[in-house]
């Protein structure tokens, strides 16, 4: 069935070009969605490792990560559950900076991010390079709240937000793609909201 | 205007769902504008129809339409079943904890257990503000689940939130815990479990975030 749904008009609206298809503007809210209980991680014990197909596997502590060049994202984020949030402000370090230190090998084509909870998500390497991805610890000028992935989460805002792994502790470069948690549970391997890549097979 | 509706859908070439999975309902306006939302399936896979429970949210774009406009005989565009995490396989012991409309996927699990003759595998506690607002209240009470009412007393139980004292007697090692409800409920309930020693890896959470 491709045609209109009988009697559905939708909200009174100007269609906002910043909204990808099928999304709505959640305004000042920021919904929390998780699959597992919220972990408690102290910055003192947190670390981030970049490993796998890299020449120099590297681990940064909280202090070491904070000494890297600061990078910010100001813009929109989009969740596969259909909410979009405009004008967010995150800060941390660019994934490009981390990869410059670790030096991916020529056969590194994918990245899997792992969280403290065991959550994983996979991404093509080109989706986390060229200024498109960050590891962030700040939101809206303050510490990233724990329910939103604090102290540190991955941020890949041009893809659906399940790719922005909360409580991130490891980025592993791979030669071949490896579906992460939601990807194994029915969701898309890439997750581009502008192409509505929500579920496997989209 | 109804607070909630149960929709029973005849889905062509339906793939049997697992209890806990959901369907996506997508609405299209004449100008091509689309809105979609996910709804957990309340029915067991053996039910010939797919039953969805839709709470009418204030200013809810999709729920308002489903509660007020949809009529018997209408066609809806749906996709599913979706979800591989918050599912019960019918064979393992489980602790089910639901708040408000978070009870809906648990109802599917309970119905499935009843059909399999394995209600012994499930222990269930649900929380609601009042009995009148609890989806499937009669069915849940008949199944003997622990019901917590936060805004009113019922039976011998005063008004109050779910506590560890409600959950500890239901807990057994080896269970997988399923926690479902609003953001606040899911956070509180999952932390209660963690605090009394349930391994975090054995807790599956489904949070119904804001959905306008």
From TrEMBL, chain A:
Residue span, Oxidoreductase molybdopterin-binding domain: 37-182
Q: Which domain of life is it from?
A: Bacteria
Region Disordered: start-end pairs: 1-30
Q: Where would one find coiled-coil regions in this protein?
A: none
Q: Which InterPro entries match?
A: OxRdtase_Mopterin-bd_dom (IPR000572), OxRdtase_Mopterin-bd_sf (IPR036374)
Give the protein's recorded name.
Oxidoreductase molybdopterin binding domain-containing protein
UniProtKB/TrEMBL annotation, chain B:
GO MF annotation: an example: 2 iron, 2 sulfur cluster binding
**What cofactor(s) does the depicted protein rely on?**
FAD
Q: Which UniProt keywords apply?
A: 2Fe-2S, Iron, Iron-sulfur, Metal-binding
Q: Which organism is it from?
A: Geodermatophilus africanus
Query: Ranges for the FAD-binding FR-type domain?
Result: 1-88
Q: Name one Pfam family in it.
A: FAD_binding_6
Entry protein name: Ferredoxin-NADP reductase
